[in-house]
Fold:
Amino acid sequence: MSLISVEDLHAGYGQVRVLHGISFSVEEGSTSVILGANGAGKTTTLRALSGMTHYVTGRIALDGRDITRAATSTIVRRGVAHVPQGRGTFTNQTVEENLLLGGYARRGGVVRDDLSRVYELFPQLGERPKQHAGSLSGGEQQMLAIGRALMLRPRLMLLDEPSLGLAPIIIADLFRTLAELGREGDTTMLVVEQNANIALDIADRVYVLEAGRIVVDGEPETVRADESIRRAYLGY
Ligand code: ATP
Structure:
């Protein structure tokens, strides 16, 4: 069953129209990846799902309930966590404070368990709970941003270009952890990426966005096997 379904979504900023009627869905427990070049509208898509884009038409449903134009706070309460591009951690707070802020709406004992779980997934964070987020490496900040989102126990996690600005070895490590999360099946993920190669490794379903339209929709094996798609959209 689809956890989130998007139908004929148009979105933009004032006079600027960015998305021109896109439709897609993410099955519960799966990982969907939206690929696309700079400016294709990937961030705008995630922002529309999180209630952060003002000019929106079409229909966005979470678990069959309409959330088109719902307030971000309502969408978060319904279990959608957004890890924005550029991480957005609180740089003057420690690693642990950032994580606890992610779980602020939840009860003590459960929060402790979740904290241990995040440290298990990202041992680098567990080694430095008292370090200020601002002094972490880019990769560690990305792990922290994802860890903080996980503290909400989201049903759907939106990840905006998690690989951006990270060294290849760190990206590989991060995506291994995302794959592990995906395999557990508790967290449904929608990931937008420019880094097609690594993103295809964790995808159950792939969409390619070009100039605000979905031009490819398929399973990763099919997309990889199609040379014309690879050449045109994936750059290899
Ligand atoms: P990138 O990979 O570079 O982040 P993207 O696929 O995520 O690209 P978006 O950030 O969704 O693309 O941007 C799509 C288009 O919308 C771009 O042309 C961008 O300039 C425009 N845009 C984004 N934010 C705004 C804004 N606040 N006001 C006006 N135009 C915007």
